[in-house]
Each structure stands twice: as structure tokens, then as C-alpha cells.
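Practice record 12: protein with FDM.
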Amino acid sequence: PPPPRPPRGSLIVLEGLDRSGKTSQCARLVSHLQDKEGLPVEAWRFPDRTTCVGSMIAAYLANQSQLDDRAIHLLFSANRWEKRVLMESKLKSGTSLVVDRYSYSGVAFSAAKGLDIEWCKAPEVGLIAPDLVLFLDVPPEKAAERGGYGTERYEQLEFQKEVAKHYNLLRDPTWEVVDGSLPLEAVEEQIRRLTMDSIVTCQKGKPLANLWL
Ligand code: FDM
């Protein structure tokens, strides 16, 4: 008989505007799951700037190159596709992934430039669907007040407002919306609870699915 398969890992995605607290919350969540819960988990992020495609994206974001809006959209998507096989094997071998941004950033940011939403979604079809989408909700004005917008291409209040509108269009009832204006510890607590629920559901045999649901 084949050896028993380990329970699969969960694909947890954090989304939100720049300065919504995603990146710190991802880091805190991953250390909690590893150190306190003793679970196999890895921190991932998109764009993954370490690949060849990722270096083209990095140059674009740093305003060191100019690209057609559709061309950069497809590079962001390709950057997810090139990680798909590894993502699937990690999940199937029991490792949960905490991912800072995914296809929803891809669609929200490109559609905020005026591209058609359905056109933006098309190249994402067939990527692995997250088991949990945690949306850190912070009004753009409040995120901007937190300071520390860098000099990257999209880090401007007017553009972030457009992105917020498009996140709202994409939001569906399966998303867990966390009020990112709450104190960091309160946000962290909610994220931990929702994540543990998702990990347990996946361990119990919830099948992997593909985008878009
Ligand atoms: N971004 C990110 C996109 O425009 N499309 C995508 O598919 C992804 C994953 O890239 F402004 C944007 C969002 C952000 C920028 O992201 C870099 P980080 O999280 O700051 O590295």
C-alpha cells in the first residue's frame, strides 16, 4: 500500500494597501506558527524579486524601466506561475504558506490603472486558490499618514485610493476582512485565530482548488 500522505498545508494570503501592516503581520504570523504551534510553515511574497522575471518587476517598480501596463501585468502573473509547481508540492507535503500579496494585488493594481478587470483576471486562472484570504482593511488616508511611503512607483495616495476601490470590487464573502486600524496585537490575534481554523480545515482534507472561485 502507498505510504499515508501527510495532511496538506494551507495557503494563507494577506492582502491590503501599502502600509496596511501586511508585511509585519506576515512575519509575526509565521514566527508564531513555527515557534509556538510547531507547524511547518514558510513565508512567501509576491512579487518574488529573486527570479529573472522578478528582477524585471523590481526594475519597473523602482522606475528604472518603463513597460506597457499590460506587459507588466503579465510579468507579475508569470512570476506567480513560475512558483506554482513549488507551491503545490509544498502544500501537498504538509507545509503551510503565508503569502504577502497574490493574484488580488495583481488585479487590483492593474485595474486601478484602467485595465479591464476580466482581462486582468484571465492570466491568473488555474493558479492555486488560497484557502484563506486575509484583507487588512485600512483607509488609504490613514495608511498614508503612517508615513514611510517609499519612492516606488505605486506609493502615492491618489493611486492607492484607486487600488482600494478595486480591492472592494474583488472582495467576496469568503474573504476575512480584518480592521487594520486596530492595535497591532489585536490584528495579530484575529489573524492567528483565522489561520489556525484554516490550517485545521485543510488538515481534515479540504481539497486544493484553482482560481478563480
Ligand atoms: N503589485 C504586486 C502589483 O502591481 N501586481 C502584483 O501582482 C503584485 C503581487 O507591486 F505596489 C504591486 C503592489 C506593490 C508593489 O509590492 C510591490 P511589495 O509588497 O511592496 O513588494
